[in-house]
Protein 1
Amino acid sequence: MKSYILQTATNYLLPLLLLFSVFILLRGHYLPGGGFVGGLIAATAFVLHMFAHGVNETRKLLRIHPGFLMPTGLSLAILSGLAPKIISGLPFLTGIWFSEPIPVLGLIGSALFFDMGVYLVVVGVSLTILFTISEGG
Amino acid sequence: MLIAILSGFIFAVLPVFTGPLLKGKLSVLSALLPVGLFAYFCSFIPDIAAGGTVYESFAWVPSMGVDLNFHLDGLALIFALMISGIGSLVFIYTSNYLKGDPYIDRFYAYLSMFMAAMLGLVLSDNLVAIFVFWELTSITSYFLIGYKNEDRESRRAAMIALAVTGIGGMFLFAGVLLMGAVAETYSFQEILSSGVVFQEHALYPIILFFVFGGAFTKSAQFPFHFWLPGAMRAPTPVSTYLHSATMVKAGIYILLRFTPALGNHAYWSDTLLLVGGITMVYTAYQALFRTDLKSVLAYSTIAALGILTFLIGLGTEAAILAALVFILVHALYKATLFLVAGIIDHQTGTRDITKLRGLGKLMIPVAVASALAALSNSGIPPTFGFIGKELIYESTMEMDSLSILLTVAAIVTNVFLIYAGFVAGIRPFLGKLPPALGKVQMPSPLLWVPALILGMGCLFFGLFPGFIESTLAQPALASLGFGSFNFHLKLWHGFNTVFILSLVTMGVGLLLYFSLKPSHKLEALIARLEPISPKSLSTLGGKGFRKFSLSWTRLFQSGFLRYYVIIIMGFLVVVTGYNTLTETKLVIPDNAFDDITIYEVITLVIMVVSIGFAVFSSSRLAAVAALGVLGYAICLVFVFYSAPDLAMTQFSIDTLTVILFVLVLYRLPKYLKLSDMRSRIRDIILALIFGALITTLALEVLSEPKYRETSEYYAENAYMLAKGKNVVNVILVDFRGIDTMVEITVLVIAAIGVFGLLKLRLKKSEVN
């Protein structure tokens, strides 16, 4: 069942939603939001695309298998935990920050990278499960 | 010393990089490692002989008192030399024995890891480190025994060995933990110097129970002896190395090592005497019935281990000296005999001693090595074995009580051992060569030279026991707290009672050898007793345990989501229900309904309606949609009570859940009445109870005085420590970062599980 209205709408909504999910991710440290919610929103965006265009189109759009996002995210989270250990010899997962705030983003620290890892894992997990189920195995 | 011990582990990684280099002719170069280690440990002999010890310390887990402390004293030196010395010969021997084997590099890796673990075990001073190395020997030996992994029996034997020694390892762990708790340190040297008297502590019997559990399983004492004959499935170099010289002696080592701390008590000596005594007589007797060359050797090995346990049980200085000397005696002759058995197997393709005759003409050096070892095994002068046996008799004779019984037990064992030694070491080389073996070739020098070196050792140390006396025996005794003991190892002690006993033993043993021919009939005879042997009984027990755990697992892991939910809810109700009902006051706060807004009432109504709809709807899709409405209503509640983070997350989760449900439902049949009336009533009851429980808990939380410490801490420190203003997020990514890390890992595992389940395409042959 094709719905042109939905397809056209999705084409505009997808980038907007993704942008929004990143926005939610970045502001998480100061305002409601964070990697988990951000990831869910991003996943929802792709699911919307999937409904409008079908799984195969969404897969093409993604280019990589969503499964790859899971180890990437996990590694990022672990690396952000190891970074303080390597850089300044602090215990695993101690928060460290750049001394100067970066324009637009604000003060960035290892916590942000950790949250980005969470974001990627959540996107990967949701999409892997949803894609797999919608393909019906 | 750390590098020396770890070198085996480092070496084990080497084949990954060198690839096929180590497989071909160069494989003999692997022996450089143990030879180097042997030379390294030899360099300590002068120091140790002079009464010194070497102590090196490396922090490992200092916060828990676990350190890599290595302590080289006389006892450790004996074992280290045995491990690296016999290891060198075994490495050389293997290069030819497994020539052309596609996995020989892997074999060397296992072997060197085993060697490293064994060295770590005997050199460690820290009790926990001892346990770690002890387990490493069990694990590496599993790979070595099961090396021929296409062979079902071989895998089984490896599994049994791992199960028995693995359980034993747990016992030892419990034992050393208790010892550490009593002494408040895990360093054995500190335990000794702190003057803790274990024998008077209430935990002493329990400590003994666990330590014995470890030592007896490892050293194959009755009734755990059965894994050792089974382990003979392994390639012969493994049997030589693990089951004659090193691993099985680990239990003996532990007993010796702990003698100064735990010994000298009736529980200690009586248990060891009894277990050792039964083991040595029973298994030496068993050896009479075997026709497989390695089987004979396996049973005589267990008997020898029994003798050692027995001697440690006697516990006198003479007995400990006898044990130390006998460890060396046994390692030398039993390794030789195993190497010879391997050569015979390798050259003729059979180990059946009823078929093996007259090989002496074909392989003289092997015959010489074998004969020397067999003589030493039988304690016939002038071999090293004679000295060992004399010491054993001396130590049993000097006991005040039961000396006759103990001596008789030792003599009986030795008589059987003489038979075993002759059958395995001499008989195959005498007599007429059967025509079937006519084409047997002389083995490669790589095979017979190691055997001959060890065989010559049996003779050399017999003729010149002085080499052992001051270098190894005296320091080892001193390290066990028998410093003042004065002795001399001599071949000739004069014509005394001990010598007469030796003569009697030899006479009866030879008589037995000449009157009893190994035959399959005898073996069949003893096989009748197999159903009541410890091996069969424990296998039966193992099967029973498997069945039990299977049905237990089936009970909880039914595979039906509904039962999982029932079990989880039921469990929570049972665990917390009683307490909640009796302890809570169920007070609804007075001002609870004061400031209810119209929005809240509407949301509540929506919730109730959607629940009712979900329960009574006859369409799945409608039920799912109703659940979605419920979820959004909960979001609204979160918004009312200013928890925007929760609301956002709940909102996205609910959206995705409904999508997921719809996708799944799409693939299910239209509508089926899944549950009957009875299960519905059961579910209703459970749901009501569970709901009531949660409601009670929620009310209880409200009426309890509020503990705000935790939340205040987070609120205060979120910005100070983590530079974040959103406390929820700061908790997730910083304060409880490790939790989050584990949670996302679990998510990934779940996704992989879903992917695997749905994408799995079983071949027809794999279905059931």
Protein 2
Amino acid sequence: MSSAQRNGDELTDISQTSEFVEGRRADTTPFERELWDVLDEIPDPHIPVSLVEMAMIYDVTENDGHVTVEMSFPCMGCPAYDMIHNDVRSCLTVVDGVDEVDIDVVWDPVWSKDMLTESVRKKIREAGISL
Amino acid sequence: MPSEKQFKQELQNGRMIESTEEMTDGYKKALKQILLVSGDTELMSAPAYYDQSLNAPSLDARASCISVIQDELGHGHIAYRLLEDLGEDREELIYEREPHEFRNTYGFDQHIDNFAELVTAHGMFDRAGIVLLGDIHENTSYAPWKRALTKVSKEEQFHLRHGETWMRRLANNSEKTKQQLQGAVDWMFPIGVEWFGMPDDKKKHDDQLEYRIKGKSNDELRQDWLSRTMPLMNELDLDVPAHYDEDADEYVLEYDFPVAFDAANKEWRFDEPISWSDTIDRWRDRGPANEKYVNLIQSGTLEVEV
């Protein structure tokens, strides 16, 4: 576990629940929702759920073809940092209406296991990974 | 307890085994054998990958390589933990065996000397692991192993992708890195071909298949590996001594399999066919890095006196 994850006490309440990502996802335009759906198809390279299910996607905003993905990683030394960047970029750039993709990696709120929904936890447990 | 023949038939019909009480001695012996090969192969890939992981060309690449090592140690742990259920002692298996007693595949007895060889190992040897364990995950009659492999399969996919990505980068970067990659493939490809063991027509019987501990024969697994490896070789314009034969509808090797290997220079002598018993002797004698790798694993416990 990275030191970032241990700083859970400083987080606001909302970031400690799975509602955080769901809330962000609901508050979007129809096109942005489409982009969320695309990201929800990208598998985490290590864990058998999507990047959205992993609660790594914090926000998606689109402005005149320019897309900004705000995201975080479960740990700062993520072994798939490059790979995930490539996936997000290449899956979004092929969408009609997307001209440019920016990825904004943020560490606030700090990613936490508490952001995972119950159904995602179940999938992860069934894959033999302890939470 | 049913007769051995009946027991094998029940397994072929889909019976799953949960505990040692349900096993015959024959089943237990065959299961232990394959688990030991699997555990030792996973474990020994860690020291084999270690040196060149520290030589990765970027911080991201290094983090990925180190993560691969961590995963492999975890996979080894799963196999040894399952062996413990079958009456083996994990500490003894890892720390108290002599180097030559390890049963890992021959590929992880070789020195990996540059980053091109490391990513080719990820791209070829980890793919061999995926083929073997993917079959077991899908077909095995031993339920605890099947459950444990869900996590392993996903992680091996990550290793493979990492390997392929870097093989592509090296192939397209410069003539020098392309040549390094070709140099790696030259000795590693035939090791991948050997990974799946003796051809089916040389084997009298195969307990692991009869007990449905695995589902596919050696030749089926080898074809599976070739059918996944060859498209990448063709895409990257790498020369390998194999091609797809349309009439036979399978991949065929362009040399008499098996052939002699000069381990010290990592060179195959394609014009020098040898027997399978010579090949098995070569495996049993272990390769040039065997002692170094086993010592690297075992030295940890001595230093901290666990």
